[in-house]
Write a structure and sequence with these properties.
- The relative contact order is 0.08.
- The chain is 53% helix and 0% strand.
- The chain is an all-alpha fold and 146 residues long.
- The radius of gyration is 19 Å and the shape is globular.
- The protein has two domains: 60 residues, no CATH class; 62 residues, no CATH class.
């Protein structure tokens, strides 16, 4: 798949998601006009624009009962990227992996030119804060810190 700045992106998908995507592309190929190159296209056969994608996501979120928590905003499509970044680093910390190396891999998955751009995706989440605290405590106790 081609991403921002014409770079090629490889995306890991669960086999069920890959099968559904393959079915969609086959269906779309039979019904699309004009040989659209975008992955997601609208009824007119053109690339979905941001507003349409947001509208569709909002509709799906409401349909799934995905309501905002009190004092929080409604879920946004972009929130999945942030959640993916945070959970990837939380897992890396918990597994004792080289977090800097994981950031580089994460940057590639997110399509960032530099890992420095990936740090903006990290929010202080309880799980990530706990995992970092546990590793720092191990370090200061003279334990195994990788």
């Amino acid at each position: 798949m081609t991403g921002k700045h014409g770079r090629k992106r490889l995306i890991a998908l669960h086999p069920s998601a890959a099968a559904a995507l393959s079915d969609y592309l086959q269906f779309r190929g039979q019904h699309a006009a004009g040989g659209a190159t975008a992955l997601l296209i609208g009824h007119a056969g053109r690339r979905l624009n941001r507003n349409m994608a947001r509208t569709i996501f909002r509709s799906l979120a409401i349909g799934c009962g995905l309501e905002p928590q009190p004092g929080c905003r409604s879920p946004r499509l972009h929130d999945f990227r942030h959640a993916f970044a945070v959970s990837t680093l939380t897992d890396a910390h918990r597994q004792g992996l080289d977090v800097d190396a994981r950031i580089a891999v994460l940057a590639t998955h997110l399509g960032h030119v530099s890992p420095a751009h990936t740090y903006w995706y990290l929010t202080v989440a309880p799980g990530l804060a706990d995992a970092v605290s546990e590793r720092v405590a191990l370090y200061y106790q003279g334990g195994n810190f990788r």
